[in-house]
Amino acid sequence: MTAPAIPTIFSPQRRDRRLERARLRRFNPDVARFLAEDMIEDTLERLAFLRHSPSRALVLGDWTGALAARLDAAGAEVAAPTGIDLEAPYPSGGYDLIVVTGLLDAVNDLPGALIHMHRALAPGGLVIAHFVGGRSLPALRAALIAAEADRPAARIHPLVDPRAAPVLLQRAGWKDPVVDTHTLAVRYSSLDRLVADLRDQALGNALARPAAPLGKAALARARSAFAARAEADGKVTEIFEIVTLTGRRSLAGT
Prior knowledge:
Layout lengths: L11 H14 L8 H17 L5 E5 L5 H8 L3 E3 L15 E7 L8 H11 E12 L5 H10 L17 H7 L3 E14 L2 H10 L15 H12 L8 E13 L6
Parallel strand pairs: 1-2, 1-3, 3-4
Antiparallel strand pairs: 4-6, 5-6
């Protein structure tokens, strides 16, 4: 029986380009990095709590380079490749830690990506994967809908609902799977600054068939709708949901 075709929602090339843009701009002092910093600190706290001291680690998606540096300083042998295909078998395995930050929001075959991570672990190895979840960016979504009320185009790619994650982890063979979520509230004085922060943190549009850019009138409506949500201090609160998946490969290697 032929397996059903996986829909092509995201472009791997666009996903890679948004990550490369973030890497190139990472030394700019004005670049937002609060999402990456949150994911890195969460990872280190989990490792400390679990008393998991990896000897061979794979870090994917951390455009800041900070996590690899911290793990290296702690004595781990760290690989941080930039061109790994999350939807294909990894070129090497045997890692006792794999950390993925911010990439799983834009893969076409999420179940397959979870299976490949599991297979790249050494027996007893640990995966920690963070990404932005489905409850994120309500203010931006509302502004874009207001900009094109008659025929809104797909301008923010669909995000993963964390409620579906436990079943996916179990099907992928992860042992002791856990799904956690928390939110970050960030205040913005303009729509343009929010969009700039998203691009700086490798969260730009990775759709395979992106809509055309907003025209002048539509962009003005989006800015106006965003500004209308401002609180007394003139700033709008935007929400980022961070989803964290953790799990292991069994000591038997299954």
